[in-house]
Specification:
single chain; about 270 residues; mainly alpha; two-stranded antiparallel ribbon; about 75% helix; globular
Length: about 270
């Protein structure tokens, strides 16, 4: 599939999913309404449309697309569980360390279930990708690295979804670079790019938000595009970056860093209401 066709398919799928969900919101429109950081009412239907659209569109991108669809579908489904069923006692539990600590104390949070489910989807996606390496140990390490990259990307993008448009801008930039880089993951990246671009206007206008549903799905799709890249150095560097930023998020506020850095603040604020 050409990269342009893949991007257009992503745009079309996101538009179709948005129209269908707006016409008949599952469980009613109120079920998907949330209050954002500025106190405005926004709809998680935008995130659901992103997850549904990208998962559907990715199925047309060959074997790598099928792997990405599995990862994005698992990310979106488990993200929706977290968005819709998070219990009152779970809301104070934040970050990977917080959920694992709660699990150690016998509390199974919705976030813990999401971590397990997204990890399982990432592992299955890694199995669907072509194996690299000559020996069984090398191939096992390669698949493990790919699974970690896919799951870690899904989680990291969710950590960035704290302001309107932020996670979608990061998605567009990363997916655009991977699309231009070419390789087997380029059609997947192009599909993710088209889907994210279609959802950006409503997200920036604070009509919708990604939530865990949309952010996990798009992040998993991006991670699969990275995992499919033939450069071992690129994949290792991407995984190190994802792990490093995830660990950093436990101690540092991304929003504060962005607000204090003029260039990042300008890019982050562009187009926002």
């Amino acid at each position: 599939m050409s990269r342009l066709r893949a991007a257009l398919l992503g745009v079309t799928a996101a538009g179709a999913a948005t129209a269908a969900l707006e016409a008949r919101p599952p469980g009613g429109r109120a079920r998907w309404e949330r209050t954002n950081y500025a106190g405005r009412t926004v709809s998680l239907l935008g995130g659901l449309a992103q997850a549904a659209g990208v998962s559907l569109a990715l199925t047309g991108a060959g074997r790598t697309g099928a792997a990405a669809a599995v990862a994005a579908g698992a990310g979106g489904a488990l993200g929706a569980v977290d968005d819709l069923t998070e219990r009152e006692g779970d809301r104070h539990v934040k970050g990977l360390r917080g959920h694992l600590t709660a699990l150690g104390h016998g509390q199974v949070t919705t976030g813990t279930l999401k971590i397990a489910g997204i990890g399982g989807g990432a592992a299955l996606a890694a199995l669907l990708l072509p194996a690299r390496g000559r020996g069984p140990v090398t191939r096992l390490v390669d698949r493990g690295t790919n699974a970690a990259l896919i799951a870690g990307s899904a989680n990291l993008l969710n950590l960035l979804d704290l302001r309107p448009g932020r996670a979608l801008k990061v998605t567009c930039l990363a997916a655009g670079g991977l699309t231009l880089a070419g390789g087997p993951g380029a059609p997947v990246a192009a599909t993710v790019l088209g889907t994210a671009a279609a959802g950006l206007p409503d997200d920036l206008a604070e009509r919708t938000m990604l939530g865990d549903t949309g952010a996990n799905a798009l992040g998993a799709g991006l991670g699969t595009a990275l995992a499919a890249h033939p450069s071992r150095l690129l994949r290792a560097g991407a995984l190190a970056t994802v792990v490093g930023l995830t660990l950093l998020s436990e101690k540092v506020s991304f929003s504060q860093v962005i607000d204090r850095t003029p260039v990042l603040h300008a890019v982050d604020s562009w187009g926002r209401r």
